[in-house]
Amino acid sequence: MNGWKRNLPGKAVYYFMFVLIVVIVFVPIALVVFGAFKTRTELFETAPFSLPGSFLNMSNFKLAYEQGDMLRGLWNTTVIVTLTLMGNAILGTMTAYILNRFQFRMKKAVYALFLMAMIIPAYTTEIARFQIIHSIGMYDSLSAPISIYIGTDIMQIYIYMQFLEKISNQLDESAMLDGASYGRIFRSIIFPLLLPATATLAILKSVTVMNDVYVPFLYMPSNELVTLSTALMKFVGARGSDLSALCAGIVLVLIPSTAVYVVFQRYIFKGLMDGAVKG
């Protein structure tokens, strides 16, 4: 009993912070969801937290879907996310495998360069990156954001290396004694064992790419290349006074990333914990 009383202040602070975080995160979402189902008259005449007259009112969603070009944005986003995840998985696992298993000159320098890439803000190198993308003919194409997303995810290499620390080198040596090449070892042994980390990183990366507006807007200005985020931004510019339609557009954009996170959240935490604890 005395121990419970001693811990009461700490628990009170813990629960207060938990409730505060929940309020900060979910209150804006609730306002947007309620607004998406309200008419313009309801939105201005009722309290923000009042329920809409009907949750069957889909007129705002229809307007956002048709005029916001959400279908095209969903298709372009799907293509970018799919190719980005494939590139990240291949390059990330191969790079981590080489850095973890092989000894070569300038290895520490490579580590230092990766570390610098993580520390230096990406916006400080934006002018140089833009010039490179434009000069090689990728500007205003889907290949521009795909190459950027693949080439700038340095953190995944360190997460893969944490997983590789748990994989014994004896597996590699046994396979080499049986005549397997390095490529065969990576393809048949290493990569399958890295699938938990790959799944975790793929989920986190897909949510990041779907929510990003800066790179697609800067490198793909054409209307035919809109993503979900840029489609919403252009829809906001076109109908800035129609708050109900804007709320509906926000909800439509939130659905894909939220669904991915909710469905696969257990794999995210499991993968992070497996990589943090060495065997």
Can you tell me about this structure?
- The chain is an all-alpha fold.
- It has two domains: 2-45; 80-224 and 253-276, MetI-like fold (Orthogonal Bundle), CATH 1.10.3720.10.
- The protein contains 14 helices and no strands.
- It has helices at residues 2-37, 40-45, 59-67, 70-101, 107-119, 126-135, 143-151, 155-164, 169-177, 182-193, 195-211, 214-219, 228-238, 243-276.
The percent range for strand residues is under 5%
Principal-axes shape call: globular
Overall structural domain count: 2
Poorly predicted segments: 275-279
- Spell out the helices and strands N to C: HHHHHHHHHHHHHH
Number of helices: 14
Estimated helix fraction: over 70%
In CATH's first tier, which class of the largest domain applies?
Answer: Mainly Alpha
Structural class: mainly alpha
The assigned CATH architecture of the largest domain is Orthogonal Bundle
State Rg: 24 Å
In this structure, how is the largest beta sheet organized?
none
- State the CATH superfamily name of the largest domain: MetI-like
**Might you state the CATH topology name of the largest domain?**
MetI-like fold
| Distance, first to last CA | 39 Å
